[in-house]
């Protein structure tokens, strides 16, 4: 459980993980469910975005995705067969509350009730994420996350789902990667809804923070006290190109925009003053009303950290357009409002198919940072994984030794952080299976289970078998292909 009063007992073996450590996998609704027009579901911003020409690779959409909506029982059985003991999934807001307002559609809730029951029957702990980017389109039409009302609507939605599932689900996450929602969605425009307004992106960030706080209150009002509430942040490990004052100042700007804008109010009840100063020419922050920071600063039961690769930055001339080497897609518009004089550099080392450098030291650094930022708060790695160009071999198996090495390195970094005193209680690899990878369509495969997109057949890759062995033994097997 994500409950501080029930801490994980440390392992005595320096190679083993704690006995109660959660070994899980993660997915999100729009990326896997499909069935976008069934059971009363209405379009989300990602339905609209993916159906807009030029927005996604090959014009691909999540209309079918990998059809988890109809195949969830088989998918849960596969998780159990692999040996996973936890599964993090997201609820589709427009499947449960199609307009983002008013009563729930019970058939939508029933799908998640059935999924939770199936998981529990197989001994797998469900972890529910309320928001993984699929805002109901009607709320975006009314202004989306830059509008305060969206945060109020989120609290109502949280209450609906909490009432429906809170008796059986103990682990709750309000938002997944609000940075992506705010800055990729409203500043660079490479994610839904595809807007490019720096001021709107900062308003969106504040109202996502407010949604987290109000949603946390709403969940706790309707759920048993044993349940826990967390948030998943894709906090950035930002490193300077050089130790010069200019490059260190560049690190400060990006750290504020990547991390402080969310963990500042969530963990400390305030926005960093340096963030307010950096963005003063873009916004006056007058939308931060009296009481907002108190509402956002709710006590958390745990913190989820998503990590893929570190960032390397330096001071430079103001950005003039064109792709930026920040790992968040090519756009003429920056996702870093107020930081146009910061340059991103490719970090050295091997890379995944996303072009992201493989660096487990960044995960260790991130964990230890939040041990300092939030002492005593349990931590979970709620996403970590790699995309590779996987294909079945002549034997019909999918051999992915590079992913095994990636997982081994990052899990070893987690184990080292635990040895160094961090209270890390679980790891959710991204992702359980290949799926719709947002603007990349079906071109990037993050899954440890291979999906044939023509037949939708599932085949566990070697990495799934390796990870399952780690989950069953609580130790890291050797990295040779399974």
From TrEMBL:
UniProt name for this protein: Beta-glucosidase
Molecular functions (GO terms): beta-galactosidase activity
Q: Which PANTHER family match?
A: GLYCOSYL HYDROLASE, LP05116P
Which lineage?
A: Bacteria, Bacillati, Actinomycetota, Actinomycetes, Kitasatosporales
**Principal EC category:** hydrolase
Bias (Basic and acidic residues) occurs at 317-331
Which NCBIfam families does this entry report, sorted A to Z? BGL (TIGR03356)
Q: Where is the active site?
A: 383
One Pfam family for this entry, by name? Glyco_hydro_1
Keywords of the record = Carbohydrate metabolism, Cellulose degradation, Glycosidase, Hydrolase, Polysaccharide degradation
Source organism of the structure: Streptomyces actuosus
Q: Which EC numbers does the record give?
A: 3.2.1.21
């Amino acid at each position: 459980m994500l409950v501080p009063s029930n801490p994980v007992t440390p392992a005595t073996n320096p190679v083993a993980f704690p006995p109660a450590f959660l070994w899980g996998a993660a997915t999100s609704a729009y990326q896997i469910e499909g069935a976008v027009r069934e059971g009363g579901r209405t379009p989300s911003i990602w339905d609209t975005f993916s159906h807009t020409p030029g927005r996604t690779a090959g014009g691909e959409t999540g209309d079918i995705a990998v059809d988890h909506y109809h195949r969830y029982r088989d998918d849960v059985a596969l998780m159990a067969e692999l040996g996973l003991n936890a599964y993090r999934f997201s609820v589709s807001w427009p499947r449960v509350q199609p307009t983002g307002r008013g009563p729930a559609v019970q058939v939508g809730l029933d799908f998640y009730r059935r999924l939770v029951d199936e998981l529990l029957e197989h001994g797998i702990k469900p972890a529910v994420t309320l928001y993984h980017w699929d805002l109901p389109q009607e709320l975006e039409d009314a202004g989306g996350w830059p509008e305060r009302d969206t945060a109020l609507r989120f609290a109502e939605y949280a209450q609906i789902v909490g009432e429906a599932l809170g008796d059986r689900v103990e682990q709750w996450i309000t938002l997944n990667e609000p940075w992506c929602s705010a800055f990729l969605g409203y500043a660079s425009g490479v994610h839904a809804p595809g807007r490019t307004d720096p001021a709107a992106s900062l308003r969106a960030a504040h109202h996502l923070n407010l949604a987290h706080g109000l949603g946390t209150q709403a969940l706790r009002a309707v759920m048993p006290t044993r349940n826990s509430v967390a948030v998943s942040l894709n906090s950035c490990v930002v490193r300077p190109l050089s130790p010069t004052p200019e490059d260190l100042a560049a690190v400060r700007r990006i750290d504020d925009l990547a991390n402080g804008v969310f963990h500042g109010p969530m963990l400390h009840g305030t926005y960093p003053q340096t963030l307010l100063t950096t963005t003063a020419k873009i916004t006056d922050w007058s939308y931060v009303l009296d009481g907002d920071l108190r509402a956002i600063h709710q006590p958390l039961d745990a913190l989820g950290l998503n990590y893929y690769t570190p960032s390397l930055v330096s001071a430079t001339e103001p950005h003039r357009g064109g792709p930026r080497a920040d790992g968040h897609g090519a756009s003429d518009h920056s996702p870093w409002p107020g930081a146009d004089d910061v340059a991103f550099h490719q970090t050295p080392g091997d890379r995944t198919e996303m072009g992201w450098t493989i660096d487990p030291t960044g995960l260790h650094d991130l964990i230890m940072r939040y041990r300092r930022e939030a002492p005593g708060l349990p931590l979970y790695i709620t996403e970590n994984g790699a995309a590779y160009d996987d294909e079945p071999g002549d034997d019909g198996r999918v051999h992915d030794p590079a992913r095994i090495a990636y997982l081994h390195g990052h899990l070893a970094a987690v184990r080292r952080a635990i040895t160094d005193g961090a209270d890390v209680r679980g790891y959710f690899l991204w992702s359980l299976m290949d799926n719709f990878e947002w603007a990349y369509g079906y071109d990037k495969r993050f899954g440890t289970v291979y999906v044939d997109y023509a037949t939708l057949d599932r085949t566990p890759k070697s990495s799934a078998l390796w990870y399952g062995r780690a989950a069953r033994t609580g130790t890291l097997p050797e990295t040779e292909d399974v």
